[in-house]
Amino acid sequence: xxxxxxxxxxxxxxxxxxxxxxxxxxxxxxxxxxxxxxxxxxxxxxxxxxxxxxxxxxxxxxxxxxxxxxxxxxxxxxxxxxxxxxxxxxxxxxxxxxxxxxxxxxxxxxxxxxxxxxxxxxxxxxxxxxxxxxxxxxxxxxxxxxxxxxxxxxxxxxxxxxxxxxxxxxxxxxxxxxxxxxxxxxxxxxxxxxxxxxxxxxxxxxxxxxxxxxxxxxxxxxxxxxxxxxxxxxxxxxxxxxxxxxxxxxxxxxxxxxxxxxxxxxxxxxxxxxxxxxxxxxxxxxxxxxxxxxxxxxxxxxxxxxxxxxxxxxxxxxxxxxxxxxxxxxxxxxxxxxxxxxxxxxxxxxxxxxxxxxxxxxxxxxxxxxxxxxxxxxxxxxxxxxxxxxxxxxxxxxxxxxxxxxxxxxxxxxxxxxxxxxxxxxxxxxxxxxxxxxxxxxxxxxxxxxxxxxxxxxxxxxxxxx
Length: 466
Hints:
Distance between the termini: 53 Å
Number of domains: 2
Structural class: alpha/beta
Oligomer: single chain
Helix content: 25-40%
């Protein structure tokens, strides 16, 4: 606790930190807390898991006046992060007479309206905050502290107009904290417009690159799920996260893994908030070992003990790849990121290799059996049999292997250095199926309240069944 006391924190707050097993500040905390206590605006470059909540929370807790209305507003991009940040702040302020309330969509607004009457700190998502402002159930006229957490994520999700509208409801005389994993030109523009001479605090990634191993497999699209199942069968890790680009693919992978006996569950923006909360509680408590998710779980959630990250779909932006693999190799622990790359992922993977500055090694395909795919509700509706698998423009049933081998088992051929060709751009799939080319077929593309691809459209990436 001596190091926290040297940062200027009170014995009361240090007692709460000791109860929470905090022993020494992280770099972002050491850089931000003294500036925050001195009343400075802070522009922080830090990723999830770096300790940002205490970095901005400590100065706020020390300066809040109990019973004086809402004095601190913290905007976050997702429901899960709103709940996580509010829980952390309650833990830090346990010896202070301070009420923290989380507001987000997907749950009833009436209980939030009642609890907001007694709150000094509000943590919320932009959409629900605007709902309360329109209903006049949230008064921001007394706000002294404004925090934009995961600001780059909020911009990526299209919340820029909502965020600026909410900021306009806050007093101009305030202290502002802005945290972002990437300090882009858009972030700098917001800082220039809404912050006063901000002090910049940037730290290196909380992920230890020396502890993070990154590999990829180049696999035929018909065998993509079969490879994933084989790899999961032969791993003996802790918690595993498997990332997909769409809600439909997320459900498909989770359901198929469960049908094959893998303890897996799915989370995405199409679930209710109660469902999402329950899923995360089960995952964090090790009741399930494999979490299949969209990028809604790739940012903001501090899940400890993730040993493996699988990219079943390659994201269409390098920064999303960085955020995904940043779920593992944290705080000195070893981790591995495995990319399952097929023809639909080539364009996206090329972008990752070009911009992410990551050392991703190609690994030869192991020998593995083709998995029989269980029929989904979509298959049953359209009279398809899931057992043999289905590939749009490809083959049905049987097994496919490069080099012409067919049968129940497949042995990988000699490994080719496709990494070089990805970097040079010589490979082309003709069409990007990794999430950048939209939707196709029955229905229009949808977007959830968390800004992710929904299952209302027929996703090209999810058209294959193996």
